[in-house]
Specification:
single chain; 184 residues; alpha+beta; seven-stranded antiparallel β-sheet; two-stranded antiparallel sheet; 35% strand; globular; disordered N terminus
C-alpha cells in the first residue's frame, strides 16, 4: 500500500459551534503506519481481521495533496442526508475544522452498506470534492468514500471527532422527528 503522509486538521466543529481559527501551525501530520488512536480502534488486530474478512472494495486513502488543497482553499461543506428532509452546511473555519472528521486510515467500501449522506467540499467557488458518508453502528461501517467522475477513488474511516459529530447530528435528527421515528 502506498505510504503517504496525510494532513490532519486539528480543529473540531461541534454542533454547539465551538471552533478555533484554522492555522498551519495547528496542523499535525500523521503517517498511516502509526497505530490507530485507541478511541477509534479498541482492538486493532480484531478490527484488522474484520476489515480483511468483510466483503467489499479496498480503496486507498485520500492523498496528502488533496487534503492540503482543501485545508488551504475550503470555503464550505454541505451535507445532504439521504432519505431525510435534512441538510446542513459549515463555512470558513468551521468547514476547515470539519476536515478533522477524516481519519488518516484507508477504509474498505463494504458490500451492502448504503450511504447516509452526501458531502460536498467547495473551494474557489466550485465543488472540489464529493464524498458519501457511511455511518453504521460500529466503526467498520463508519467511513467516507470520495467520488471522482462518478466513481469511488478513495475511502477513509471517520476519526473519533467525526464519529462524535455524526452521532450528535443523527441523534438530533432522530429526536427532532415529529413521529419519533427519525432516520437512522
Amino acid at each position: 500500500m502506498k505510504k503517504t503522509i496525510f494532513l490532519f486538521g486539528v480543529l473540531f466543529f461541534t454542533l454547539s459551534g465551538n471552533a478555533q481559527p484554522a492555522t498551519e501551525s495547528n496542523v499535525k501530520l500523521n503517517t498511516p503506519t502509526a497505530a490507530p488512536p485507541s478511541q477509534m480502534v479498541q482492538d486493532p488486530p480484531a478490527f484488522n481481521v474484520a476489515v480483511a474478512n468483510a466483503p467489499g472494495e479496498q480503496l486507498s486513502s485520500i492523498s496528502n495533496e488533496q487534503m492540503q488543497y482543501l485545508f488551504k482553499n475550503l470555503s464550505t461543506i454541505d451535507y445532504t442526508f439521504l432519505g431525510a428532509e435534512f441538510s446542513m452546511s459549515a463555512d470558513g473555519d468551521n468547514a476547515k475544522g470539519n476536515l478533522m472528521h477524516i481519519s488518516t486510515h484507508a477504509a474498505k467500501k463494504l458490500t451492502g452498506d448504503k450511504p447516509k449522506a452526501l458531502i460536498f467540499y467547495s473551494a474557489e467557488g466550485n465543488i472540489a470534492l464529493q464524498a458519501e458518508l457511511y455511518f453504521g453502528d460500529d466503526q467498520l461501517h463508519q467511513y467516507l468514500v470520495f467520488i471522482k467522475d462518478g466513481k469511488p477513488f478513495a475511502a477513509n474511516y471517520l476519526a473519533p471527532a467525526g464519529v462524535t459529530f455524526f452521532k450528535q447530528v443523527v441523534g438530533a435528527k432522530v429526536e427532532a422527528a415529529p413521529d419519533g421515528q427519525g432516520q437512522h
